[in-house]
Amino acid sequence: MVVLKNLHQELSRFRVRVWAAGAFVLFCFGLLVARLVWLQVVQYDSFAERAESNRIAVVPIVPNRGLIKDRNGVVLASNYSAYTLEINPEKVTDLDGTIEALGQVLDIQARDKRRFKRLLDEAKHTDSLPIRTKLTDEEVARFTAQRFRFPGVEIKARLFRSYPLGDVGAHLIGYIGRINQAEKKAMDDWDEDDLANYRGTEYIGKLGLEQAYEKELHGATGFEQVETSAGGRAVRRLDHRPPTPGNTLNLSIDIKLQALVEQLFGERRGALVAIDPRNGEVLAFVSKPTFDPNLFVDGIDADSWRELNEDIDKPLLNRALRGTYPPGSTFKPLMAMAALNSGKRAPGTVIMDNLTYSFGGRTFGSPETDRPGPKDMRLAIVSSSNVYFYSLANEMGVDLIHDQLAPFGLGRKTEIDVQGEVTGDLPSTEWKRKKFRRPEQQKWYAGETISLGIGQGYNNFTMLQMANAYATIASGGQRFKPRLVREIEDVVKHEQRRVASDAREPLPLRPADVDVIRNAMNGVTLEGTSRQVFLGAGYQSGGKTGTAQAIGLKAGEKYSSIKADERKRDHSLYVAFAPLDKPTVALAVIVENAGWGSASAAPIARRVFDYLLMGQYPSEEDIALTQKGQSFAPVGAPRRAADVPLPGQTLPSAAIAASSASAPASAPRPASGASR
């Protein structure tokens, strides 16, 4: 059967198909051209920048962190370079498998893995994280030979912080550590320039001067512009800007004195602060026990952290800055100064001391060593009469005591140049209303005032506050903001910027009143409770011992009944200044749970004065006795301070010979404006 086709109709259909196909092809070509125009013209700048960024990498160069030195140029914090093995988790497909394989090439301990996991939890995924630090040359060579097996793993040269003297001065120097998430969040509030300066920086000051002077120590970040291969390897350097090292901090601290005091404490707990009353410079800032800041630089392991954090002696507590204690009898000269300044009692006013003072149906007693009799202000301080100061506190009242002693810096921050200082407690009626919540607790009772006179009750101060207060008395009313840093040195420009201790408005103390207190405190060292300690001293000083209750006693409970528990024993305190006529050092020291102030605290103060004023360093025998609380005046032949090396160091004979011909390097400098 023959089928006749409509050729005209078929041809018409064919043409339609051809046109449709042609239109489709043109449309596709139009899309390609449009896309090409979009990519090559509209998006050219963006893709060119991407291509360039793939070819060129800008790598931040972290600057050398600034040094920290003591007043004599001894380096307390420095840097060294070492290799680290680092993993970029974003470039590793099997992280656990990679770590296990690395363990077959290098020694990777369980603590390294735990630290890496902690860093991984804290860091961004794009961060390169260390799995091993401080590689030896042999380990570097061993990994380099097998690097092809480990994509995303590389060796980097890093700067590490070092504290050459270990635990000496750890609380004041502080330490650095890896920036955590909380710190990263806080850094988001920084201005753009500061934030840009920390690109590439992974470590930041965490405590002490490292934290307080972070931006001075950090320096300015540099950069390096390099051309990279498709695999991310650097091919050549195109441009660079070198980093600017951080500034050097020159401290007012004499680190040899610091080390001596820490040694004199031995295994005991406590604090000592020594200040130059002429300018507010801190000469020693001791908290015992201490810790090794080198443990924190590379990320402290869990066992070491647990050991420090759970230690009953609390080595991480900065007792000089944050430890508050009742001042005990060391408060009495301040009470006397307040009485003279307010006109409440004259130096010659005599009070009959019968060893007990009754008020409101309660009897306030005196130590068994006190002797009864009439006492004026000088004798009351020399003999440490409780009754004299019970009656004085009652006459003055809590608010007058507060108003007179607050200007000495008690119960408020001294604003020293480290963070974390606490205020302590100088009570008043207003203070108590704010301190407690229940109405019956907010009321001040007259009987509570009595114990304030002997430095007990609600009185609680830091040794920094006490040293600062007695520096004010020693200077005749001149006040300074205490400072640990005396100069900031620009290592590039070789310029030094003096960090002056801000002078505050002087207190209007009458010279005659100051002389009364000074002479009375001098009497303490000649005929009072510290006379045995200062026998044979080559200078005159003023001081006051103190014994403060560590815990409150229940009704009917006697101190002797808790003597067996060492941590319930009284604290031993001493405040002092020297030399008497023109004081160049004022200090406060506490030895926790050590009993009488003359037995433990005062001997440490004597040796500080001998060091600073006489250039003398105690004998080994004397140090051993002082550590046990069994010394008074120094025993054995004292050594020249310049001849004694720092812990862990040796003093070359040439250096000894050179130092023998010069004045003691540890002597405090004169006040600002005097010749250096």
Characteristic key phrases:
single chain, 676 residues, alpha+beta, seven-stranded mixed beta sheet, five-stranded antiparallel beta sheet, 19% strand, elongated, disordered C terminus, cell shape, Peptidoglycan D,D-transpeptidase MrdA
Present the secondary structure layout.
Layout: H1 7-42, H2 44-55, E1 56-61, E2 68-69, E3 75-87, H3 95-105, H4 110-122, E4 129-135, H5 137-145, E5 153-162, H6 170-173, E6 176-178, H7 181-187, H8 192-197, E7 203-205, H9 208-212, H10 214-218, E8 222-228, E9 234-241, E10 248-251, H11 255-265, E11 270-275, E12 282-288, H12 294-297, H13 302-309, H14 319-322, H15 332-342, E13 351-353, E14 357-359, E15 362-364, E16 373-375, H16 377-383, H17 386-396, H18 398-405, H19 429-435, H20 439-442, H21 446-450, H22 463-474, E17 479-480, E18 485-490, E19 495-498, E20 503-504, H23 511-527, E21 542-548, E22 571-578, E23 585-591, H24 601-614, E24 616-617, H25 620-627, E25 639-640, H26 653-660
Parallel strand pairs: 2-10
Antiparallel strand pairs: 1-8, 2-3, 3-4, 3-5, 6-7, 8-9, 10-18, 11-12, 11-23, 13-16, 14-15, 17-20, 18-19, 21-22, 22-23, 24-25
Helix pairs in contact: 11-24, 15-17, 15-18, 15-23, 16-23
Question: Can you walk through the features of this model?
Answer:
Residues 61-237 form the Penicillin-binding protein dimerisation domain. Residues 270-609 form the Penicillin-binding protein transpeptidase domain. Residues 655-676 are annotated as: Disordered. By secondary structure, the chain is of the alpha+beta class. 37% of the residues lie in helices and 19% in strands. It is built from 26 helices and 25 strands. Strands 2, 3, 4, 5, 10, 18 and 19 form a 7-stranded mixed β-sheet that branches. A hairpin with a 5-residue loop joins strand 8 and strand 9 (234-241). Helix 11 (255-265) runs antiparallel to helix 24 and helix 16 (377-383) packs parallel to helix 23. The longest helix has 36 residues, at 7-42.
